[in-house]
UniProtKB/TrEMBL annotation:
The lineage of its organism: Bacteria, Pseudomonadati, Pseudomonadota, Alphaproteobacteria, Acetobacterales. InterPro entries: ABC_transp_permease, BCAA_transport_permease. It comes from Paracraurococcus ruber. The keyword Signal does not apply. It holds the Pfam family BPD_transp_2. Keywords: Amino-acid transport, Cell membrane, Membrane, Transmembrane, Transmembrane helix, Transport. Belongs to the binding-protein-dependent transport system permease family. LivHM subfamily. This is Branched-chain amino acid ABC transporter permease. The chain crosses the membrane at residues 6-31, 43-60, 66-85, 97-122, 142-162, 191-214, 226-256, 277-296. The keyword Transport applies.
Length: 307
């Protein structure tokens, strides 16, 4: 593999990693603070993409579509929390898994009913079209760099919110000792609702930003959800910093693995078997990395501080 292709794949991995972080950040807060397993979190990523595509088509521009889709994604998350999820907080994890899996099935069918099964395409905003020369003969899309910058800025803002504000202190207290927080008079129901809403909006934001580079289609959040769970396990449940580091790591492993493994297997196998074996091994790399990390650090790289 050439240096140019390696650099492109590394940037693609980082860009994929920040999208994973936007999904995983809300998931790790919901799981860490509320001890709630939300398998429907990937559906909120899908809803964000569909809302962004619809509002962009309606307004004729990506930016108004983004501004309209964010509060709409927040409203969808709050509505789901009010209708379904708040009734599951005191139930066991199996009940939560079964109920949120049902939400996945329902919303996937609802999306097909409203938008159809054909993939939707969202054009790249004109302001971010074209590429930037990273080295002679190598252009990298501006929009992908914008996704990377937006993800890093969001990660920094979220870290400041969680670590440096009173609201963040309540979130961290809820993650470490929820019964004590309730005993001190904090309205944990409202706190849970706000955390859930913010998580849904972050997942929706990831879907909106991914829409111009991916096809918007039913079920698009399922594969992202699996990797998001890997991210929060590696990073440490309830840790925003851990989610960010783990998301970048998973994004790089996933992207570079799929690019490098077929080439590496050609050292030992003929081209056709090498492609097949390389693709199979590449799909396993993230889970092998997770197992190795958990063997060394069972609570993840940056576990949330216990109270």
């Amino acid at each position: 593999m050439s240096t140019q292709l390696l650099l492109v794949q590394a940037l693609n991995g980082l860009q994929f990693g920040v999208l994973l972080f936007l999904v995983a950040a809300g998931l790790t807060l919901v799981f860490g603070v509320m001890d709630f397993i939300n398998l429907a979190h990937g559906v909120q990523y899908m809803l964000g993409a569909y809302l962004g595509a619809s509002f962009a088509a309606w307004t004729g521009s990506f930016w108004p579509g983004l501004l309209l889709a964010l509060p709409a994604a927040l409203a969808c998350g709050l509505l789901l929390e009010w209708l379904v999820f708040r009734h599951l907080y005191d139930r066991d994890h199996l009940s939560q898994v079964l109920a949120t899996f049902g939400v996945i099935l329902f919303l996937n069918q609802a999306v097909k009913l409203v938008w159809g099964t054909a993939p939707l395409q969202v054009p790249v905003p004109s302001l971010l079209e074209g590429g930037i020369a990273l080295m002679p003969g190598l252009q990298y899309p501006v929009y992908r760099l914008a996704i990377l910058a937006a993800g890093i800025a969001t990660a920094l803002l979220l870290w400041l919110l969680v670590e440096r504000t009173r609201a963040g202190a309540l979130v961290r207290a809820g993650a470490s000792n929820r019964p004590m927080l309730a005993a001190l008079g904090v309205d944990t129901g409202r706190l849970f609702m706000l955390v859930f809403g913010c998580g849904a909006m972050l997942a929706g934001f990831a879907g909106i930003m991914a829409a111009p580079i991916l096809s918007v289609e039913p079920g698009m959040g399922d594969s992202v959800l699996i990797l998001a769970f890997v991210v929060i396990v590696i990073g440490g449940i309830g840790s925003v910093r851990g989610a960010f580091v783990a998301a970048l790591l998973v994004g790089l492993i996933e992207t570079l693995g799929r690019s490098l493994m077929p080439d590496l297997m050609r050292l030992f196998l003929a081209p056709s078997p090498a492609r097949q074996a390389g693709a199979a091994l590449a799909s396993m790399l993230v889970y092998v990395a997770m197992a190795l990390i958990l063997a060394a650090r069972p609570r993840g790289l940056f576990p949330a501080r216990a109270g």
